[in-house]
From TrEMBL:
Stated name of the protein: Mn-containing catalase
Residues the entry annotates as binding Ca(2+): 56, 60, 215, 217, 219
Chain positions recorded as Mn(2+) binding sites: 35, 65, 68, 150, 183
Cofactor binding annotation: Binds 2 manganese ions per subunit. Binds 1 Ca(2+) ion per subunit.
Organism the protein comes from: Methylosinus trichosporium (strain ATCC 35070 / NCIMB 11131 / UNIQEM 75 / OB3b)
Alphabetized UniProt keyword annotations: Calcium, Manganese, Metal-binding
High-level lineage: Bacteria, Pseudomonadati, Pseudomonadota, Alphaproteobacteria, Hyphomicrobiales
Protein family: Belongs to the manganese catalase family.
Superkingdom, natural source: Bacteria
Known cofactor(s): Mn(2+); Ca(2+)
Amino acid sequence: MFMHNKKLQYTVRVSEANPVLASLMLEQFGGPQGELAAAMRYFTQALAEEDPGRKDMLLDIATEELSHLEIIGSIVAMLNRGVKGELAEASLSEADLYRSLTQGGDSHTQALLYGGGPALTNSSGAPWTAAYIDTIGDPACDLRSNIAAESRAKIIYERLINVTEDPGVKDTLSFLMTREIAHQKSFEKALYSIEQNFPPGKLAGKRQFADLYVNASQGNGDSDGPWNSGGEWKRLDDVVGQIPLDGGAGSATVKLTEEEARDLSTFMQRLESRVDEQATPAKRH
């Protein structure tokens, strides 16, 4: 079960209303790298997790992400609080109110459609979607995806910190950014605690191709590094000369029944291009 504590996990101090900044903050409320997406990602993973330790960790982090959603949503609400009252009470002239709403971003959309509250959208107004959640049900895959998600969220928080001069907002964003680092560490430890975490899944793959590096983009700028050179790799530079890699004909074939082959032949004959005839407009039958 869930319970709610009315105290925020971290105090939100906003120096002044700023609806434009509020629009940008929505990226971490309802965006693909935001707190709602993170909470739903980890919560759904936890429900299906069989390992007690990973299940506990995922529930802990998912629940904390909901706390972070509350924090970033509170920042948005505080930044919109001034224009919320002005719009509701029509205390400004039409021209001044219009200017306050259209300073930039989607602040006018927030104020008009959502009353100044945080909307489940990203900073461009695109609605939140479950398509942000890329869970696949294999812990080795999902933990790697979680690590990447926390890394991306950390970068978004960095960028948000860089676009505001409000010291209180900066402080709270720094807290949220730092928690992304902590979660990334937890997911990394959980991944490495799985002895057979690479490659993900049960099947090892075709051995002759597992250590093959295909130099498919050749020319000025070719580089060597641990990702394509050394004792671990068999490097293929003569790509055209070596394909197909399986030693076959390099074509696609399928075995058809006699009836399937006959129907396909009829279909091909009916739609065959007549290159020896001049093309004319379609004629009615």
